Amino acid sequence: MLTGFFFMLREGGLKPSITELLTLLDAMKQGLAGYSVEDFYFLSRSCLVKDETKFDRFDRIFAAHFHGIEDAFKSLAGEVPDDWLQKQAELYLSDEERAQIEAMGGFEELMKALQERLQEQDERHEGGSKWIGTAGTSPFGAYGYNPEGVRIGQDGSRHRRATKVWDRREYKNLDDSLELGTRNIKIALRKLRKFAREGAADQLDLDDTIDKTARNAGLLDIRMIPERHNAVKVLLVLDIGGSMDDHVRVCEELFSASRTEFKHLEYFYFHNFIYESLWKDNRRRQAERIPTAEITHKYGPDYKLVFVGDATMSPYEIVYAGGSVEHWNEEPGAVWIKRLLDAYPKAIWLNPEPERRWDFTPSVKLTRDLMDDRMFPLTLAGLDLGIKSLH
Amino acid sequence: MTERKFTGTDSYIATDDLKMAMNAAVTLERPILIKGEPGTGKTQLAIEVAKSLGKPLFEWHIKSTTKAQQGLYDYDAVARLRDSQLGDDRVHDIGNYIVRGKIWDAFANEEQPILLIDEIDKADIEFPNDLLQELDRMEFFVYETKELVKARNRPIVIITSNNEKELPDAFLRRCFFHYIKFPDRETMQQIVSVHYPKLKQNLLAEALNAFYKVRDVRGLKKKPSTSELLDWIKLLVAEDIPPEALRPGDARKAIPPLYGALLKNEQDVHLFEQLVFLDRRSNQ
Predict the structure, then answer these.
(1) Whole-angstrom Cα distance, residue B12 to residue B192?
(2) Residues B214, B141: one domain?
(3) Mind giving me the DSSP string for B221-235?
(4) pLDDT tens digits for B89-98?
(5) pLDDT tens across B203-262, in order?
(6) DSSP of A95-116, one letter per residue?
(7) Structural domain includes residue A186
(8) Looking at the domain assignment, is residue A191 inside a domain?
(9) Which of A32, A170, A190 sits opposite B27 (nearest CB)?
(10) Any domain includes B37
(11) A50: which chain B residues are within 8 Å (Cβ-Cβ)?
């Protein structure tokens, strides 16, 4: 009976397995969620979703699929009838207002229209006459002056039972396509870890000691081994200034997270695009420049190269000599990035601009081509994908 | 089945979704994975479930060096080696050097136990995968003695995670999942009142006000959680702080008294002091 729901979840990007579906069916057979749709919602979420960042997505699919089904549960359990609710609402409306509601198709229509708009709309909205938000003339939203208005998202005491749990979408700020905090970044970066034994031998290698002792006819032969360290090496190259000012916070977070996460981390700055030199200290960017060629000499090909930048500029800055906005560059930026990519085969570009805007900026497309498509959005999900391609 | 239901205890408030997930795990005898912010009572849950269902509890706390094998058993090779050099007779029976782990203990228990695997994300990334078979079939094989250990009663396994590492899919597929979200004011009020039933209402209200205000400060390194709130209230009661002292606008005590229980690192305290200072200036 739940196969429709199951496939809808899979289409929606959640990946529940058949075992999980069978577990859910088994739990229902045992009568765990027999009497209310809310119980069923909790049970199915617990069985099918194993990651709290996916709860919001689950809530939306659940609401879309089980639209109307709660009525069926109600008739079983004998809950408050809709008529009564409607009456209560009408108590507070004048005749004129009631006529306007009728004009829109009645109370039920109003609630349904609300649902539909919630599905269409996903951003905060103020003013205007259609979308849900504050201070508008739309029938839905807070502090508005449409008489048939339905209040949404106003603070203050709400009877918690009145809202359907999945429609509240409490988990919405946990979805992993949102911008991230340092702790989340650290966890994402951890996937890049690669442990190796290096340095002084200061730990007892028990297995080897036993083996050697046994071979030594039972006389103790102690063997030592170096401790495990994270051996990943990272070169972080960050765009700074100009259009990047909008993204300072997320870049800072990425930067501070990577500083604590990697022992071998080298970072450099550039402005708009990479040319013959980079710098390490923004205050002294004119005085202390480091030639890009020196970097490729100094750090071996085992380093992983991570660019961070919005790649938003005039295309001339990439493809022409002398295209840089700050100085006269003898060779175009495209040549320099090629050299870096030749030196470091493992490289990605993280872009703080939302992915949907990339196609509208020619320079982003150019950079992406230069990077062989290894450009990822600077979100948790993007970081995950990026790190995978670094392995 | 009804008498085996977990409904929270007089010292632990469980939300509806938590009860549902927990009861599903108990009924189907599958492991349940609990995630959530530090200090929201993940570990406490196992203790309370054991208390409420009247079952014995086995706790296995995981560290970064813990291996899955240690939960099953350890073969103490060094002791055997030493005994062999001293000519001890015990050395001939390898069974003398097998040390039981927590999982074995739980499997061998007479009645159905509860097994807590605490902070599974601390361990190596392969750790959960190494336990798949054991948790699925509730049996394992001891190679040294060629013995198959099977659970007498399938234990109720509660696993907690702080989200430091992602857990493998194959492992997740076998568990129920629950995310303890930070309690809202109403739930928090219930939680505090089960811990301090004699607390004055106005002190509680003021304390919660101050607490949620501190939590709302942006940019804190570690937000105070339920356990910190409970500690703080305990201190407030012990020091006999009047509710008025917690009210904002009291210029003499801009920072909540005994804030050390809520804010646990100096950058946070510093940030908070600055904000309070700015706030006070703008109010004047």
Answers:
(1) 10
(2) no
(3) SS---HHHHHHHHHH
(4) 888 888 888 9
(5) 888 888 888 888 877 667 678 888 888 888 888 888 888 877 777 655 444 567 777 788
(6) HHHHHHHHHHTHHHHHHHHHHH
(7) no
(8) no
(9) A32
(10) yes
(11) 33, 167, 172-173, 175, 177
